[in-house]
Specification:
The chain is mostly beta strands and 135 residues long. The protein has one domain: OB fold (Dihydrolipoamide Acetyltransferase, E2P). Helix content is 6%, strand content 38%. The strands form two sheets. Strands 6-5-4-7-8 form a five-stranded antiparallel sheet. Strands 2-1-3 form a three-stranded antiparallel sheet, with helices on one face. A hairpin with a 5-residue loop joins strand 7 and strand 8. The longest helix is centred in the first third of the chain and has 8 residues. The two termini are 30 Å apart. The structure holds zinc ion (ZN).
Length: 135
């Protein structure tokens, strides 16, 4: 079935992130001056303001920093998904990502729960990243 929900629109800055996702790799910008990872994609390092960075593959691992269980989505497009978990994931590399926790009952999600990235190919161009409980 064709994916019928809103999709990200990559920009020149974020395109490498989405290219990585398509290959089922979670890439983040890593500052070549201080080594800090960052997300969302930014032109400058948030720690030291250096411009030089590389795209580095991450472990895809993290933990639930915060979450909510959605029963009334912002748009009807997501009505079939409720209840679902909208979460802030703290990656092992440091940055936080807004995502979903899937693969378990929403009531099983808890703060500090270890999670690992899971990719979902939405279209030929866009692969979405979600997180599921780590083994
Ligand atoms: Zn830096």
């Amino acid at each position: 079935m064709a994916y019928d929900k809103p999709l990200p629109r990559p920009t020149p800055l974020s395109q490498p992130f989405w290219d990585g996702a398509r290959e089922h790799k979670l890439l983040l910008q890593r500052c070549q001056s201080c080594g800090a990872y960052r997300f969302t994609p930014q032109a400058l390092c948030r720690e030291c303001y250096a411009e030089e960075y590389e795209w580095a593959e991450t472990s895809g691992r993290g933990k639930v920093y915060s979450y909510t269980i959605v029963y009334r989505p912002q748009t009807l497009t997501f009505m079939d998904d409720v209840p679902y978990v909208l979460a802030v994931i703290e990656l092992a590399e440091g940055p936080h990502m807004l995502s979903n926790v899937v693969g378990c009952a929403p009531s099983d999600v808890h703060i500090d729960m270890p999670v690992v990235v899971q990719f979902e190919d939405a279209t030929d161009e866009i692969t979405l990243y979600k997180f599921r409980p780590a083994e």
